[in-house]
Amino acid sequence: MKKNLFIKSIFIFTLILVISCKEKTPSTEMVSVSTSYRTSLDYDRTVLQILDQSPVYNSFLKLVNAVEYFDEIRNMNNVMVFVPTDEAFGPSKYLINELSSPENLDRLVDILEYHFVRGDLDAENLQADLSAASGPIRLKTINGGYLAFRMQKGKLSILDESTGVAFISKSSIRGSNGVVFTIDRVLRPNRDNTTKPGVAMSRK
User: Fold this and answer.
1) Domain carrying residue 91
2) Which regions of the chain does DSSP assign to beta strands (E)?
3) Is 129 part of a structural domain of the chain?
4) Residue 74: φ, ψ to 5°
5) SS3 for 170?
6) CATH number for 73
7) pTM of the predicted protein model
8) What is the C-alpha separation between 122 and 110, in angstroms, rounded?
9) CB–CB of 99/173 below 8 Å?
10) Number of folded domains in the chain?
């Protein structure tokens, strides 16, 4: 009798345990979803015209104006430019005033040219190339420094030589002489670190 009662108790306990396990909600795994990037074709405008007519690049253009760099941009061909938005400069004008002060004009040219890469990749190309690559892609800028591109949390990101990270917006614009990318941070070169080997990327 006791033996039968013991067996029944074990059976009931096992049944309750099985039912309890089935009722538990399975845990949800965090999945990193890649951002979808697109490129608008605007061959009627040059890179400089796209910058000039955008409502979010005013701060960058103020720096371009401070060193009278418009002609250089106008004469560029097959160029990729990574442009910080006005918000990337912060709520105050401190960064703009600092970079455009007379004693910093030489440094400002370096910083501006660090945002330009000779090549014709757009955001979709970069995403595809990074998906096929085993690691970051490093591109040489006009000022001689390098930018490292990689996918981070499903988004295209740029690591500059001062270890700052900028994210590329979901859309880029392909103009008549280059591609304009929008980024959320001002890129900073390292003058002592501009001789590293890099990979020049382009797609015809």
Assistant:
1) 31-193
2) 38-41, 79-84, 116-118, 137-140, 146-152, 155-159, 165-174, 178-183
3) yes
4) -60, -35
5) strand
6) 2.30.180.10
7) 0.78
8) 23
9) no
10) 1
